[in-house]
Amino acid sequence: MDLPHEWYVAMAKSFGLFWLVAMSIVITLYAFWPSLGGRFRRAADSILDDETGPAGDPRQLPEDEPWR
């Protein structure tokens, strides 16, 4: 039995659609899962833990100077 090309195209399009919808649902559930909230909070706060303050005078930055 020889299947036409259109059948393969339709199957690929349908499988791709269901695959993307399923992956979107899985990723959304993973992101909003209550027990993983602490992990995400630590990751968001970890970049702030290493900072000791601004490197220079925060009142005068080079990009704040007027153009000459």
- Quaternary structure: single chain
Question: Which outline best applies?
Answer: elongated
- The parts where pLDDT drops under 50 for at least 5 residues are none
The helicity comes to 55-70%
- What is the strand content? under 5%
Distance between the termini: 78 Å
What's the β-strand tally? 0
Report the total helices. 2
* Helix and strand composition category: mainly alpha
Largest beta-sheet characterization: none
User: Rounded to an integer, what's the Rg over CA atoms?
Assistant: 26 Å
What number is the mean pLDDT? 79
SSE string, helix = H, strand = E?
HH
Report on the architecture of this protein.
With 68 residues, the chain is an all-alpha fold. Helix content is 60%, strand content 0%. It is built from two helices and no strands. It starts with a helix and ends in a 19-residue tail after the last helix. The mean pLDDT is 79.
